[in-house]
Design a protein that fits this description.
With about 325 residues, this protein is α/β, with parallel strands linked by helices. The chain has twelve helices and twelve strands. The chain is globular, with a radius of gyration of 20 Å. The structure holds S-adenosylmethionine and iron/sulfur cluster (SF4). The site of S-adenosylmethionine has 20 residues, from strand 3, strand 5 and helix 12.
Length: about 325
């Protein structure tokens, strides 16, 4: 098991498949000038599948989510999903994507064993989309969403970040659109994880502001803590239900006490928190000669031991409210959101 000193158990693994992306969302990446991870440091498909196998067979991981950067840019994605779906015990498999290219690959992903997708879309207005992502790809994203829905990768969840003065007036429109299409919408508070360190608390649109904006059109009744479990999203029934909208108040309503996440970066580092400033290198252990450790079983157990130690050191909380808080050097796009 992946335990920490506060009694939490990590059963949900986030795997970043690449730090590259075909969008440039302003809250995530700069327009240009961001260095990519060096190719030689990137895990191969085999190394990723081996780590997922170690996680599910030795460490109690039950859910695996592929993310990035943009995971659909990874050429081996379908095969990685297929090989992870063949593991015993079989983990639940999901994907977080910006949706570009999903139109083509959604059926193959479903056939490979993918269970669900989350698609990130912050606006359904083409001009606002361009302003937020610096690209004109809204139609691709909408077609990707529809294809995921048609392929049965359901429930299709939609993640939206609101930016003050850009799309913060569009929350009710987004909810109306999501309800119309049967997508589960969740708003995420903007976090200090952008590569250009441009986040400020004053500019962040809070969970409370998002709820106030939605209440201008609907009545919202909280679904309650029991339904939330370890999920970061608090959910509200819209006009009595059955449709629910989620809000992830990562900054103003932190859920660190219930966190069950462990994160693997595309270059083989374990992070026990989005905001951690330390990482544990599994890549070197993975690339060590198994013969020197007595065989592949022993080599896998060495990797598992390093992973357990990395999670044991997890801090109680993100520390964002601490005056000494420092943003981690690694940006969201290279951590895997
Ligand atoms: N490219 C894929 C996507 O956009 O879904 C996967 C990676 S992206 C880093 C994962 C999620 O993190 C997206 O929903 C995105 O909106 C969110 N995200 C990125 N930067 C963020 C930030 N600074 N604060 C809050 N959420 C952020
Ligand atoms: Fe790319 Fe996702 Fe970051 Fe947007 S949020 S720039 S789509 S990695």
């Amino acid at each position: 098991m992946l335990l920490d000193t506060y009694g939490r158990t990590a059963t949900d693994l986030r795997v970043s498949l690449t730090d590259r992306c075909n969008l440039r969302c302003t809250y995530c990446m700069p327009e240009e000038g961001l260095d990519w991870l060096a190719k030689s440091t990137l895990l191969t498909d085999d190394e990723i599948v081996r780590l997922v196998r170690i996680a599910v067979t030795r460490l109690g991981v039950r859910e695996v989510r592929f993310t990035g950067g943009e995971p659909l840019l990874r050429p081996g994605l379908v095969s990685i999903v297929q090989r992870c779906a063949a593991l015993d015990p079989r983990p639940e498999l999901s994907l977080t994507t910006n949706g570009i290219g999903l139109e083509k690959v959604a059926p193959a992903l479903r056939d490979a064993g993918l269970d669900r997708v989350n698609v990130s879309i912050d606006t359904v207005d083409p001009e606002t989309f361009h302003r937020l992502t610096r690209r004109r790809r809204l139609d691709d994203v909408l077609r990707g969403l529809a294809a995921a829905h048609d392929a049965g990768l359901t429930p299709v969840k939609v993640n939206s970040v609101l930016m003050r003065g850009v799309n913060d007036d569009q929350a009710p429109d987004l909810l109306a659109w999501a309800m119309e299409h049967g997508y589960e919408l969740r708003f995420i508070e903007q976090m200090p994880l952008d590569a250009q360190h441009g986040w400020t608390r004053r500019e962040m649109v809070t969970a409370e502001e998002i709820l106030t904006s939605l209440r201008s059109r609907w009545s919202l009744v909280p679904e309650g803590d029991a339904a939330r479990g370890s999920a970061p999203a608090e959910r509200w029934l819209v006009d009595g239900g059955p449709y629910r909208v989620g809000v992830i108040g990562s900054v103003t309503r932190p859920f660190c006490g219930a966190c069950d996440r462990t994160r693997l970066t595309a270059d083989g580092q374990i992070r026990n928190c989005l905001f951690a400033r330390e990482e544990t290198d599994l890549r070197s252990a993975l690339r060590a000669d198994p013969a020197e450790l007595g065989g592949i079983e022993q080599a896998d157990e060495r990797v598992a031991e390093l992973w357990r130690a990395a999670m044991w050191g997890k801090k109680a909380g993100s520390g964002i409210d601490d005056p000494t808080f420092l943003q981690p050097p690694r940006p969201m796009s290279a951590i895997g959101g």
